[in-house]
Amino acid sequence: MSAVEVAGTRRAGAAAPDLRAHPREDVLLRIEQALGVRLDREGEVRKRRSVGAATDRGTWVRIETRRPEKMAGQGFNGPEAAGLLTGIAKPAWHASVAWAEPEAGLMWRADETELVTAAPIKPGGILAVDPRLPAAWWARLNASLDALAAADTTRVATLHTAPVTQARVAGEIAAVFGPGIDTAIGSWAPAHADFTWANLPGPECWILDWEDWGLAPRGLDAAMLWSASLAVPGLAEQVRDLRRADLDSRDGQLMMLWFAAGIVGAPAGYSGPLLDPARAAAERLLSELRR
Length: 291
Prior knowledge:
This protein is α+β, with helices and mostly antiparallel strands and 291 residues long. It contains ten helices and eleven strands. Strand 4 and strand 5 form a beta hairpin. Helix 1 crosses helix 9.
């Protein structure tokens, strides 16, 4: 888990059980029966609150669990709702199944989508080596972000299962950098809201895991990827150059400061090589935002 993810989890409150430590074979069997597929157990990708696996019909199934209170607002159908988006490098959505497990206080959902065989650029942890992605990859990413920002939705983005709100942004920036910063957000647009290297395969560009997408401050996705790239200064600058129109806006600067706050404010030892560049960036951003 990255420093940004740790900080977000710490702020968001109680989470569902860690599926890496608590495998649920009964859940997998139920999904296989409901969707009419067989899951590749040997190739499973297990994360904290999700499990992914290829199927015997050449598709991908992503399984997620959440506490019911984490579903307020946008609901639990992000991948399905994202199926209506166009012009974006995302896997096609096919089908889903969802159910409640009241005795455990959990909701479960599985979405079957197009199978992407390209590997995530950094499946976990902090990216410390430039992946040297081709120009076509960056062009497809840029076009996808433009298309997403132009989409129409009433969903509100969630970051680490908590809604992205004006109050949350203001409170988390103030908690790390103190009061006196004008954190008023002027522009909101659809965002993926889990825009990390774990959800971006290469060398062919895809954007995976659409459960959290919705309206967010302008520049959120670009700022999130920039913050996850800070251990590789040239890569972070490449992200900034690509989305300069967003990140040079006041809202974009606020988003960069917000993610810098998540790194600087994380528990000791979690931020690793992100910490020093995040502090330096925060000093520059604070100076600009206080003018």
